[in-house]
Amino acid sequence: MKFDETEKEEVLDFIKKESAKEVAGKSIGRFGLFYITLIVLIGVGSSYFLTESAITAVMTMIGGALVALINMMNGIAGTAEKQEKPEFKIIQSLIDKMDVTHKPMKVDVDKDNVVVRKGDDSVTAKR
Question: Which residue ranges make up each domain of the chain?
Answer without folding.
Answer: 8-82, 95-126
